[in-house]
Amino acid sequence: RRVYEWDPNFKFPNRIIGTAVISLIGLYTMTLADYSLSDAIFDRVERWNNALKEGLIICNQTEALGYMIPQIEEFISVARKSWLATTIFA
Q1: Any transmembrane segments, and where (predicted)?
Q2: 19 assigned to some structural domain
């Protein structure tokens, strides 16, 4: 015995279709904005890292920062890739 009998007069409401389409457009817009904003922020962090490298070359008294530069570059690379991966899977 069936729990639910299909109603032959049932018509799928246009509101549900419209809501689904608007939701997908909003999701696409938010994902695109997140990707664009994160790309701009990571570019700014890379510029900051390059400025830090140039300052390190000009001023030889900052040897402690010299050891941090490769770690910062690796962090930026891993953070950018992981942010992209989590954005895609979210």
Answers
A1: 16-37
A2: no
